[in-house]
């Protein structure tokens, strides 16, 4: 494994909950002791359902919100020890792409102004060189250079997400965190942006953290996957292994719930418990079909090396149901789909 | 047939001119079956659903025929529609929070439907409401019936909506993206519930969705819509095994799958056309890798096999593979 670009150590963030009179009513344990390593040049996906803490974790990693405890190391440097100025300088190397391209672009800024802003902020190109760099970035994300003079509202959702990606690339980042970057897009447009992200990661040697609830997208572009449940990581490992041989019952339930995989076992019952009062012991025990006494009493630790899971029973669980190869269309469909192979022509 | 839609067209007057959101759409659904209407934003699938429910704004111009159990609905007055809704046809929407009244408890809202349509008294209606909440697998239904929507999870709210829709045992249930706002484990629960209720009651279901995975697991028949028109219509199993419209082929390849596989996703270049100035002829042609001169004329929705129709001059698509 190559050197770590980002290392998170025992990160914790609790958001206090107060009632109408301002009295403390406990805390939402959004992130509750998360340790993760992201090797340089790799794609790590953080998956989980709403409220599991994956978005909070992404913001903590960039110190956009301050953790209560734990460490964040970027290229070995402790980000929590940096001054405001030091952090600002580091920020050009770490960028965030949001889900909603409509909200993340300022409607009063032309595309050129939006993309040139980080160039100016970090004094990346010499005065007068901005226009050429913006044109280059637009081409890089599959847009025509003439787009620079237009306004965000003139573009479709997929094109706006390309603009947001160009802006994130402008400062020459080493790390990009994408928080559901393709979730708002229709599937045909989503495929274009997923292909683009894959190309950029490969060509620019980016390190990418993908925060997503879409397991298909995750399987498609991630090298490693971390599965979160109620503020904690329950399983983490190489994507191919986690999808083919999930060790944690929650990961299995997530995969079995994805429609269209032919898995007919009944998905888990019930809803995610409140993150204000998570269940004792294993937080998943209230919904787990395999739970035993130990699961209600003792907190399981993440065990394993390259593929880790936090489950007392992981060595005793029955084999995970196989995901059938969705190949109804067979060779005929593959040959037809070959005509849709993207050309990379500007959108 | 429980529901037969023939040549349904819906046009809205906009500031920039008439917008034909649905253009001569035809399909039918049998009792106890699920028909999926699948397509991306703006394809007209939700407008089709609202037209069947009689819930379009008065300014919408609707033509064509909508027959429920052999009786024509398209000519009904708004009052007549209201009488049919609930008893004969009901709808479940994507976002249960906006469809439920925040000021009334879950039980009161289900009971209201029963009072209105079944003429039940207050006590009897509330008791029947608890039974319905239990039926849609809400745990501790009697306690939950006394809670307000904000006290319920997203999945639970959607179950309340389904209970309301089922209150009068409708013959047809229209579910418009019923699980899009829900997490994947909860989505699986809700779709399993709809399947179970369909088996038990023989209700016909029209399932509006953008997710081909949902279609594969839960639909008997499927209509693929693109830019207001039907691109392809088939048995669900046939659609996945032998798609005959290029748009369907592209969609099937564009959705990344959890089994892994292929390096790049099939990508349909460009974007959906502006319905205020749609392209002449086949509306998919500008994005289609198989387009040719004849695509400037609109291809009819024609059968390529019994029960399997495609609106494409190239269908059956084996032609393009042989070429």
From TrEMBL, chain A:
The keyword Disulfide bond does not apply. The keyword Membrane does not apply. Keywords: ATP-binding, Nucleotide-binding, Transport. Residues 15-255 form the ABC transporter domain. It is found in: Cell inner membrane. It comes from the Bacteria. Pfam families: ABC_tran, oligo_HPY. SMART domains: AAA. It is a peripheral membrane protein. Gene3D superfamilies: P-loop containing nucleotide triphosphate hydrolases. Signal peptide: none annotated. One of its GO terms (molecular function) is ATP binding. Belongs to the ABC transporter superfamily. This is ATP-binding cassette domain-containing protein.
